[in-house]
Amino acid sequence: MDKIYTITIHRAINYGAVLQAYGLHRYLKSQGYDVEIIDYRPKDLEYKKVHLWEYVTLKSLIRYSKVVLKFLIHPKLSGMKVKKFNSFCDKYFISTNKKYNGFKELINESWYGNIFICGSDQIWNSELTNGISKPYYLEFVPTGAKRVAYAASFGKDSIYEKEKPIIRGLISKFDAISIREDSGIEIAKQLGIAATKVLDPAFLLTKDEWSKIANIPKYKNYLLIYKFGDEDIIEETYKKIAEKLKLKTVLISESMTGEKKVDFKANGTGPEEFLGLFMFADFIVTNTFHGTAFSIIFEKNFVSVSHSDTDTRMTSLLDSLGIFDRFIKQREDIDSISNSIDYIKVKQLLDKQKQQSFDFIEEVLK
What pLDDT does residue 255 have? Predict the structure, then answer.
């Protein structure tokens, strides 16, 4: 059987990044493929042992400084979280023996695989990768090897004009391209590139498969908040819903400031604990893509709250599953949210998309 290498942002201290990497890796292994994750850790996306890839662009420099400050103020909790992430990756990932920090190291390697897959997640978002990142476009792959993108994401509605000819040249070399969001499909179309829409790798595994690696939380009868940033609207949302449902609030936050009063803060949470908190929550409020994804996977009642960095990704997923009404854009939307979601209908739409994703993988790897 063919040797497969995957490359993605797999070692960030970020739940979505690590779990989507696990999802694709675990699915390919379950299908009998010989697969390794290329242990690519670019130096400019690392802060010592804390991989702050979502904070290091010029645009988010202030946000980056806050997270570094948080690490310095709470070294024990931050260190615990890093240890749990590293333990998860060491336990579940089969990675290359060598760690690569730059493009030159990758291109000088003697690769013996003949299929290379980039994705998923925002590997094609130049604002997160400090410019167009050649490794995530498989520019190091030897001639003759198959190049595949699985659920790659640009993470935004459009790309810069100056980037278009460069990106067009890079992805035109691919044998097959699949993208996670409608906006990404449209970007590829504008570049004259055909792409297939598929699901994030988190959806390649079943609820039961995720449950097997989830840790049971110590909390009961709670509303889970998983948020990024400090917008007032998400605070208003979870306070109002928790009061209505008479639930305690448990917070997982990537923010330094704005952590308003909640009943419990799940600090130092690792990936397995993260999954358990979603699995046993009575209601979930999130403003992140993967928070939305795992709410759906575990068939939870939830709402996704608008955030400038994640709206495109969240709304594309919600709309495709017929639950766009779970999206809160403004304060007036909070009161219109019903408590329950008809997961029979959602599952029908999701199963169809899952099959399309399975078919894409099977077709490109045969």
Answer: 60
Distances (CA, A) of 350 to 279, 299, 303, 343, 344: 18, 11, 18, 10, 10
CA 253 to chain CA centroid, Å, is 15
Going by DSSP bridges, is the β-strand pair 302-305/283-286 parallel, antiparallel, or unpaired?
parallel
Q: Is 223:250 a contact under the CB 8 Å cutoff?
A: yes
Cα separation, 193 vs 178, in Å, equals: 11
Per-residue pLDDT averaged across 150-159, rounded?
A: 93
Among candidate residues 279, 324, 283, 322, the one with its CA nearest the CA of residue 306: 324
175-221 pLDDT, tens digit each: 999 999 999 999 999 999 999 999 999 999 999 999 999 999 999 99
Distances (CA, A) of 148 to 9, 136, 174: 16, 11, 6
The edge-to-edge listing of strands for the beta sheet with 146-152 is 95-100, 34-40, 3-7, 115-118, 146-152, 176-179, 196-197
pLDDT at residue 43 is higher than 80: no
pLDDT tens digit string along 66-102?
Answer: 445 554 544 455 788 999 999 999 999 999 999 999 9
Residue 335's contacts (CB-CB under 8 Å, 6 or more residues apart) are 240
| Kind of pairing between the strands at 264-265 and 248-253 | parallel
Residue 40: alpha-carbon gap to chain centroid:
17
CA angle 54, 60, 64 (to 5 degrees): 70
Give pairs for 56-59: CB < 8 Å, separation 24+. Answer: 56/130, 57/127, 57/128, 57/130, 59/127
**226 dihedral zone (left: phi>0; alpha: psi -120 to 50; beta):** beta
> Do residues 151 and 119 touch, judged by C-beta distance below 8 A?
yes
Q: Evaluate whether 244 touches 209 at the Cβ level (below 8 Å).
A: no
Region 260-282: what's the mean pLDDT?
93
Residue 324: Cβ-neighbour burial (10 angstroms; 0-12, 13-18, 19+): middle
The closest of 88, 67, 152 to 116, measured between CA atoms, is 152
* Cβ count within 10 A of residue 265: 15
